[in-house]
Each structure stands twice: as structure tokens, then as C-alpha cells.
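INFO worker-7 received task bundle
INFO bundle size: 2
INFO processing item 0
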Amino acid sequence: MKSYNLNWVIAHEPKYLFYRVAEDFANLVKEYAGDLDITVNVLTDDEYNAKFDPEVPVNRHNLWKLLQDGDVQIAQMQTTSLARQFNSEMHVLDLPYLFRDHDHAAKVLEGKVGVDLLNKFDKNSGIKGLAYTYSGGYRLLPSREHVTSLAELAGQPIRAGLSQQARESIEMLGGVPVPADTEQTWELAKSGKVQAAEYVTQRIYPDNCNEWIKSIVHTEHSLFLTSIVVNQDWWNSLPTEVQSVFMKAALQAARNERALSLKDGEYHLRKLESEGVNIVYLSEEEEAELHSRAAKIRATHAKTVFSPGLVEAIENIH
């Protein structure tokens, strides 16, 4: 009987979130494999570097290259990074207030629209998507100053993601976007170069951002998503029954991870609150105004950025 071995490398923070979904996937593969001989090796970037001693050590920024070259068979990557490198249409998922709730998000991500986006990477990418995970969830707005309303951050520099959609989301919230990678947030906030930053609560403690956060405005303005992706050539070499095992395990592990991420987010939010961080919730009037602004952004992007009908297809899923 042929054996199938694959390496899943964890190179993103918070590692506990990414490691958890990888281990769950490995256990599900074992459960679904039956008589098939399949081994999933889950390694952190440090463990991979120590074991294989690559010429260029693997990290979050070059993991995609190892996946592309086939040195790593499967990994979890930030969806915005995949969009920036291999399929700009995936940036649609960063649009503000695109998802009505998590049930709507699940229907989009697991339905035709989500599957199509995962399977439309650039032909030269060498990778294929299997499923979406959160590894975060809704983005909020932590502030380095004590605030009691979103309006107090109006006109202030706020760290934004690198995409056009992220920048416009910060403008929608009234801030001046400062595009920066997530890892730059701590230094930007501690040095006073930004007054706030869009973030997910699951990353706050691993990234030591609790050191500067005084308030969190509970905007939930967009979803932070990651994706389980595999090397395309390796995938194509697998028999159909092995692909089916991996696909079934990826989908279930993604569902489990999304549910656990939400619980983690709420736990960390309550922990921050217990430590004196002020959680600011939007009023009904503020929510209505932000949703109105977001609808205009989505309408403009629907006409000028994305394929005809893509934004509407997502909005019309019920």
C-alpha cells in the first residue's frame, strides 16, 4: 500500500490558533482515512528549520514560496496575502460590512462564490485552496488612548491593512489610514505614529499589543480570514480517494476553527476588559451611518474593481 506523507508548516501568529487547526486536520484525516496510509506532520517554522535546515529559513513572509516549490505540501495563509499575490478578486472579502453575520459568511465561504475564489489563483501560483478559516474573525479598533466613542478617533492616524479595501474601511470609520503590515502595529502604536489600529482580539496578547491598548471600539467592520492551501502539483498527483479525505478534513477543520476562533475572541475581549480596557460599542445611529457608508464603498468597488456581479452575488446570499 502506498504511503502519503505531508508537511503542514505553521509560520503565522498567533501560533496556537494555527497549530490547533493543523492538529485538528491531522486527527480528522486519521479518522476519515480508513485503510489509507496517510501521515500529516505538523511543524512550526522553527521546528521545520531545525529539521530540514533550508538555505533560507522559512517564515511567514516566504512560506508561500516553499509551498509553491513543493517543499511544504499544505499551510494556512492570510487570505489578504493570497489576494495580493495570486488572486486580487479575493480582496472582495475585505470589503466593509460585507457579511451580515457569521452564518452569512459561512454560506459565502463554503458556497460557490467562496469555492470559486479559492480555485482562481494565478496559473503560475502553484497552489490550490481547500477551505477558509478565521484565525481571528471580525476586526475591531483598539486605541492607545482612552476613548468613549468612535467619533473621538476622527481624523486620527489609524493602522490599516495594505489593501485598498482596508484603507477605505479606515476612512469609512473616520480615520486617516496608515497602511502597514500587522507585525508593524506594536511599534507604530508605541511610538505614537498611530492612535489606533484595526486588529483582531486573538492576536492582541501574542503580539503584546495589550501593552498599549486603553480602549477598543467594537466596530466589527470586516472579517480577518485565512485559508488552507496546498501545493497544486502535489494535489494533482493524489488519487481521488485521498483528495476526498483531505478535502473533507479541511472543510470540517475549518468549521471547527471558525467556531473556536469566535470563542477565543470573546474570551480575550473579556480579559482585556477585566484589566481595565474600555470596550466601546457603537450606537444604533452610528451603526446605521457606517453601514450606509460601507454600502457606497461596496457599490463603487462592484462597478470599478471586481468582476461584474461578484459583490452582488455575495450580498444576495441568504
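INFO item 0 finished
INFO processing item 1
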Amino acid sequence: MIYLQELLSNPVETISLTAIIDTALCVGAGGSSGSLADKPIVRTADNKLLIPASQLKGRLRHECEKLARGLGWAICQAPNPQMMCPQRADFPEEEARRFQRDEDYRVVGDNRYHCLICQIFGNPALPSRVIFDDLICQEKPENLPPEVLRPGVTINRRRHTAEEKKLYFLETSPANVQLKFTGDIHLQPNSPASTKALILAGLHHINALGGSKSVGLGWLRWEIKGLSVDEKDWQNLLPGERR
């Protein structure tokens, strides 16, 4: 339930992100037409390159899950809905008991228990406390080549050789031009106290986005504005320290 008074007294915090792409970026748009590429790159309606918000959120959630588990938090098994909070099917019995006796897993206004990651990123029963924008390329489309194609060939995993008649083309952004993609992350009121610290740590674990990262595509670095994290925020990342 949303309370208007809480929204007025707890304004949304905004984190401004800029992803500086150091190599060519390949974010495929399935089902796109009008391109010679087998995997065209995704674009906005006005033809600007973009990194979808869903990809950034999913990758950041995955990194935050790893960090939270390493710090000792009990974390559900995303993305299977039955194994996520609040169901947590096949969850280890000892960890399941932690949810019932630790107030860190209790959400205000909800009598069910949710892990730290679900409290931040949401689950089928709980809305996300962080809203992501698409990261949009700031370079004008007319200043970029209309299409950059990168050839590849399918590899037979059993024989470790190239398959016959399996040549394909990927569309990528231009390489080595330091394109900047910008967007925002919006922290909703009543986000967990450890949200900002966990997001900052998670972003520093993301060194590449898009497809074909293993062959050098999509490598990037971040510029982050509007995110201040102090010692108390880092302490809140430890289980049992948020009260």
C-alpha cells in the first residue's frame, strides 16, 4: 500500500549513471528487421543506441546477490518464481528458519518475509524499491556509422571446429570511440538502509554488458553521480546491523 504522506516526507533519490564503452557494444534486438545483421543492435525510436534497463537491472541484481551471500545474508534462488521469496521452495531448512526469527527480513506493511535482494529489486509478490531507466547513447545517430557489422562463425562444441555454412553477422556500436550511455536509477522511499552501498558495490563488479563479452565486446567503466555512501551505510550491509 502507498501512503501519500510517506512519499512527501521521503522523496525519491536519483543516482545518475554514465557507462563509458571502451570497446564495441553488442546488445541484440531480437526480431528486428531492416538490417543485414543476424543480430541487430537495439535502438530507440529516434535511432539512438541504448542499453535496456532490464539488462542493467538483471545484471546488477545478480552481482548484488553474490555480494549479499558472501556477507552472510540468506538469499532466495532467483529467477525461478517458486524458489524466490516469499515461497522459497526447496530452501534449506536452517536458512528458512532465519527468515522467521530475524527482523532484517521483515518488510513494513507485509506479514511475509523477504530476503534483502527481494526487498531492493522486488519479486512476484513485492514491488521493486529501485526503478531503472534505459541507458541512452548521447552521441547523435548522424555522427555514427549507419551500421557496423562483425562477422562470426558457429563452433561445433564436440569437434571444436567451425560449422559449415554457419557464418553470421553481429551489429555492434563503433569500436574505440568511448561512447557514453546515460540514465538514472531511482531509489524509492523506504528502501532498505543498505541499498545504496550494495548498488555501488554491485556496479563496480560490472565490467561489461551486452553479448559476446568473452571476445571483448561491451567492456565499460562507470561514472556515478548522486550516490553518497558513508561508513554507516557500509555497516548496514552486515546482517544484523540494520536495526
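INFO item 1 finished
INFO post-check item 1: The longest helix spans residues 53-70.
INFO post-check item 1: The chain has one domain: 9-235.
INFO worker-7 idle
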